[in-house]
Amino acid sequence: MNAYFLKMLLCLILFISFQWQLSAAEVTPDKPLLQETFQEPLSKDWFWGLGTWKAEKGVLRGYESGPRRHGPVKMRRFELGDGVVDFEFRLEGKARFAGIIFNGSQQRGHIVHLVISQDQIRVLGHAKKGGSENLLQQPHKIETGKWYSAQVRFDGPSMTATVDGRKFTVQADYIAEPKLTFGLGGDSGGPAGEKAGALEFRNLKISSAPTVQTSLSEAGRAEIRSEIQAVIDEGYYPGISILLIHRGQVVMREAHGVVDIETKKPFTVDQLCWLASTGKLFTATLMASLADEGLLSFDDPIAKTWPAFADIRLSDGSKPKDQVRLRHALSHTSGIPNDNWLKAERQLEKNSPQLAGYVAPQTAEDFVNACLKLGLVVEPGTKMMYGRPIDLAACVAEKVTGNTFITLMQERVFQPLGLQHTTIQPTPEELKQLAPLYSSTKPGIFEPDQFGLEVAARQNKGLSTAGGGVYSTLDDLGTLMQLHLNRGKHAGKQLILAETLELLYQPQPGTNGRYGLAFQIKDSQVNGHSRILSHPGYSGPVAWIDFERDLAGVLLMQSNTVQRTKHHNRIIDTIYRYFPAQAKSD
């Protein structure tokens, strides 16, 4: 009996010890610093305000009164460094927006301001008193008369806000400054008092920042910065930006070097860049959304939507054993040759018998006809030949929906993810902001990459390429990668089923296990084994996800060099030393 009792006691102690270690390794619970009940009379720490404010039954209600000078605002003393602010808000009547602002000393003034209006979310930063900059602006619908939850989390120079389940992060050095007061307020609809509208707030809580194993140590950041700078110093890239998202939190978001060799303009985190082949990740996402709705299957023959494809032949005139399927197009195993595509488009092979009369495709039908003219050089699904035939995916998408590829990308990928700085057809103003593209074959020697620029220009006339026509920014590309890391969830909504996305990540026949459907597949042995799903681009970028490490990453650089893969690997290997591979808990 005693032996049994001791055995059970030992098991219990081991179990409790294991549970404690597991809990301690994941999260230290928030420590409440302020729990506001909103009852009259308000605490004297609510020291100043504009408009009329009432507190009743746990709700703070404010509206404008008298000649209109400013929307209602109520200020409270509370010193906050790193920490979390939770609250709920509601717009009533003609109220246009609600928000929370954090201030420094009276001499310092505003630091950062979250504004939530009926149609968008904005974050305004104030690097100095009297000045402001737009750190973030994203479309988002807010209904009047409905309660919404919001959270603001400060972690050094980073501020992560979650509104109505939608999360985003901004970063600026001054965000780390001490925040001595904060204010609730907004625009209640005008000076007509409650008749016009009102703002309401409730459940305000401020907590210490929870200790979660998502933060990258400062030593880690320093080593990654050092590696990036070392790569820049080798002379193949003028500048590089980096975004790392670990367990749903942005842990590094920086830019180094310059974007323009001539003007020495700094490379910034909001720089618009041509993604080249990294844009295939957007195409893969679009095709998954169409498959999710049953509009297509990755096993569909191209001939299902383009019947003429049933007659495509091998170079010896024989019929292939298998039809060319959508999965073949997305994995570069269609059997359609690629070697002469770009040369033909530049009219460098006018005398090629195979390409006699060739005209660069302007429509989906043109592209299909060009593929049929080229024919097959190998059986579909047997050999990977990287290149333009992936654009057949765009042809299929247009055919099954009746919409253009550009429209489909806008409606099914860019808009649902709130990607305001991602496009396939840049406006003249966006082209002015586009990072110059360089080519570098020797250290320190940068030449404008005319070939790449010509490719980019061609891709945005007529048929928009599925293979490399996207222009985007660090944050927008990071949002796409986070969608995949979250198994199709974004802002609390399941945009694409996880099982549909999983089809993209499976190695395809003929690729030696190294390519899925528009995703490259690599293994990492640094700090544990894991599988990296990624895609680089001609212009220098690379984006990846790693489920074992619960990590998404983006590197942007605008220079074409044969050293690109080596440099990507150097930086990623340095990053991985700080993120051990482990199974992600659901």
Automatic annotation (TrEMBL):
InterPro entries: Beta-lactam-related, Beta-lactam/transpept-like, Diverse_Enzym_Activities
Pfam families (alphabetical): Beta-lactamase
Record gene name: pbpE_2
Keyword annotations from UniProtKB, A to Z: Signal
UniProt signal peptide: 1-24
Magnesium recorded as keyword: no
Record's protein name: Penicillin-binding protein 4
Species the sequence originates in: Gimesia chilikensis
Domain of life from the UniProt record: Bacteria
Beta-lactamase-related domain boundaries: 228-567
